[in-house]
Amino acid sequence: MRYLVYAVAGFRRYATYRQATLAAVFTNCVFGFLRSALLLAVAGASAGAVAGYDEQQLATFVWVGQGLIGVVSLWSPPELADRIRSGDVVADLLRPIDLVWQLLAMDLGRATFALMTRLVGPIVVGALAFDLFAPRRFSTYPLFACSLLLATVICFGCRYLVNAAAYWLLDARGPQIAWTLCNGVLGGLYFPLWFLPSGAALLIVVATPFPSIIQLPLDILVERGSPEQQVVLLSVQAVWVIVMLAVCRAVQRRGERRLVLQGG
Amino acid sequence: MTVIEARALRKEFVVRVKAGVLRRESRVIAAVDGIDLTVSRGDMLGYIGPNGAGKSTTLKMLTGVLYPSSGVVRVCGFEPVPQRQALARRIGVVFGHRSQLWWDLPLRDSFALLRHIYAVPAADHAARLSRCRKLLDLDPFLDTPVRQLSLGQRMRGELTAALLHGPEVLFLDEPTIGLDLVSKQAVRSFLAGIGDAGDTTLILTTHDLADIERLCRRLVVIDRGRIVHDGSLDELHARYGSRRRVVVDLDAPLVTPLALPDVSVESIEADGRRITYALEGGRTTAGELVRRLAELASIRDISVLEPAIEDVVARLYADRDRHGAGA
Amino acid sequence: MDSRWLTAYGPLVRAQVRSQAQYRASFVIDVAGSVLFGVLDVVAVFVLFRVSKTLAGFTFADVFLMTALANCAFAIADLLVGNVERLRVYVRSGLLDAVLVRPLGVLTQLAVMDVAARRVGRVVVAVGVLIVAAVNAGLALTAARLVLLVVAPAAGAVIFSAVFVGTASVAFWWIESGELGNALTYGGHDFTAYPMPIYGTVFRRLLAYGLGFAFVAYYPALALLDRRDPLGAPAGLGYASPLVAALVAAAAGLCWRRGVRHYRSTGS
Predict the structure, then answer these.
(1) Which domain holds residue C81?
(2) Verdict on whether the full-model pTM lies above 0.90
(3) How many domains does chain C contain in total?
(4) In chain A, how many domains are there?
(5) Per-window interface: A 197-216 vs C, CB < 8 A
(6) How far does CA C54 lie from the centroid of its chain?
(7) How far is it between the farthest Cα atoms of chain A?
(8) What is the pLDDT of residues C205-218, one digit of tens each?
(9) Do C114 and B102 touch (CB under 8 A)?
C-alpha cells in the first residue's frame, strides 16, 4: 500500500514539531478554561442544564473540543496553495499517485500523531480541573472513534478546497477568511450549535460540512440523545465525507487541467 | 579619510553541545578572533574566506546588527551598536540570500517606502532612482510585484534600494549568488561604476572569485576568525607563489628535456607533444623559455596562462586543512 | 521606540495603504472579511443569552456592553500592532537583520510594514457596536461617563497592544514559541469579553489583575453602568484603566527591548 508510506511520512514530520505541539496544547488548555467558565456559567444560570446539555456534558464538550482542533487540524498553513502558486505542485503531479489521496494519507498520519498529543493533552488537563462527562454506553466509544475519523477527512477536504482555490485565484485570502469564519461560528467552536433556534441549527448541520467537524463528534461523545440519534449524526458525517471527497477529486482534475493549459 | 576602523574585534558565541546522554556542556567559540581592519573612503574591498570563517559575523558587527564581545569598531564615525539608527542612514546593505524588498508590492512602491524610512529629500531620491533605472534597466519590471521577479531582476532592485539614500559605505553579502552570467556581469559593471566614482566605499563578501577580480583592488582573507591576508590581489599571488604557466604544442616530442632555472614541468600530454611549463620565481621569463625551446624543437602553438585566483584561494584553503586544528 | 517614529509613522502608513489599495479586488475582500469578523465578535453574546437570562448575575445589556468594549479595544490593537507576531518569521528567516540595518526601530518597522489596513473594517464595526451597546444599556451619560466611554477602549487597546508586543517578543529567545502567544492575545480577547466572576480564582488573579485584563472591559463597564462589583472592588475602578494601560505598556516595552538586546548579542 503506497499510501501507507505517505501516512508514515506525515506522522514523522509532525512528530518533529515537539515544541510547537506543546505550545499548541498549552493554548488549547487556556481556551479550555475560558470556554468552560463561560458555558458553565450559562448553565449555572439556567438550573444546571441548557439546550440538552448538563454541566458535565458541557465541560466535556469544551475540553474534548479543544483536543479535536488539533486532530482535525482546523487551522493550518496554506502549504498546498503556496506550492500551487509557486509552481512546485508540478513535481507532485508528475508522480504516479493521485494528489488528493496522497495528501489525505499524509494528513491521516499527522492526525494519528495529534491523537496522541493534542487530543490527550487537553483531556487530561480538563479531567483534572473539571468534572467531565464519561460515556455511559459502551457503544459510544467505537461510534466516537468513527466519528473522529470522518471529521478528520471532512476537515481535510475543506482545507484542501480552500488551498485549491489557488489554481484559479492569485490570492487565496478570500477562501481562507470564509473558512475561518464558517468553522468558528457554524462548527460549534464558540457555542454548541444547539444554542441557536433548532430550525437554523438543523439546517446548518445538514446543509454544511462545518458542524460535522467539531459539533457532531462531540454530540456523539456526550451522548446528547439516544443511540439511534448518535447513528443519525454519524450518517450525516458519512454523507459529507463522500460529498467532500467527490468535490475534491473533481476540483483537482479541473485544477490540473488549468495548470497544464496555463503552462504551470 | 577612514570610514571603517576595527581593532581587536572579537565575537564569542556560547554553544551548548551534548556531552553525554542527558548532560549538555557549554563551549565558547570565537567566531571572530581579534581582527584589525582599516578601510579608507573609496576603497573597494573584497572580504573572503571559507564557510564559517567569520565573514557574516564581521559584517553584522560592522553594521550594528550584532554586539561585539570586545574590541573597538567605528564606521563612518559612529559606533555601530549604540548608534545603530544613525549609522543605518549612512550605510547600505545588500543581502544576497535575503530580500529587503516588500514581497507583495511592486518595486516602485518599495522604493517609495524606503524614501520615507530614510527620510531622503524627494529631489535626491528621484535623481538617484532615475540613474539606477537607466544603468540597471529597471523600467521593464518596475511595476511588477517583487515576488514575481526573477533573481537577476530582484538583485538589481536590491542594489537600487540600497543606494537610494546615498550611503557612504555599501556592504554586499554575496550579491551575485545564484545569478545567471548576464546578470552577474550587469551587477559587476554597475558596482564597478559606483566604485570608480570614488565617493562610495564598497565592502564585498563573495564566493565568486570573478567578482573579486573585476571589482576589488584590495583583498582581505579571513579564516577561522582571523585575518590571514590583507593586501592587493598581486600581493596574494606573490605570497602564495602563484605561477604563470606556458603551454606549448610541439610537432614532435622533445628528445632531451629542457632544464631552466625556476622552470618546472607541470604536465606532459598527447604523447609528449603538449608540455605545460610552470614559471616559479623570476629567473626565467616566458620569453626566454620560448626562445630556448625553439632551439630544440619545432613549436606549433603557445599559450600563456595567468595565475588564477581560484588556484591561490584553493591553495590557501588547502594549507589551512593541512595545518589542521593546530593553526 | 525611537523618537522618529511619530514622523515616520504617518507617511509610511499612508504609502502602505495606497499600495495595498491598488489591488482592489483582494482589498475589498479583506475589508469585507474584516467586517464579518467584527460582526462575529458579537454574535456569541446574542446566542448565549438566547438560552440563558443572566450570566453571573449580569443581564444581556451589561454583558453586551462588556463585549463591545473588549471588541473595540482588541480590534484597534489588532490594527495597530497586529502584525508584530510576524517577528517569529523574521527571526527564523534572518530577515530581522535586514530590519536592523534600517534607520528605524524594530517595533516601528514590524508594526508599520505590512500594515493590515484591511483590519479597519473590524474597528469600524466594533465602534458602531459599542455605540449600540451603550444606547441599549441606557447609560446615564454624565460628562465623566462619556469620557470613560472613549477612554476605556483606547486604554484597552493599549493593554492589548502591550500583550501583543510582549508575547511576540518571546520569539527573540525562543523561536519555536509558535502559538504560545495566541493563548494570551486571542485568549485575552475572549477573557475580557465576559464578566470576571465567571472565572475561577486562580485564572482571574493571573489574567485579570496580573495582566490588567479586568481593566479593558469589566471595570469600565461597571463604572459606566453604575453597578456594584460582586467581587467587591471599589466603585469607579474603571477610571483607573489608563494608568493600568501605562503600566502594562511599560512592562511590554521593557520586555521588547531586552529581547532586541538578546538577539543582538547572540545572533540567530
Answers:
(1) 5-266
(2) no
(3) 1
(4) 1
(5) 197
(6) 26
(7) 64
(8) 888 888 889 999 99
(9) yes
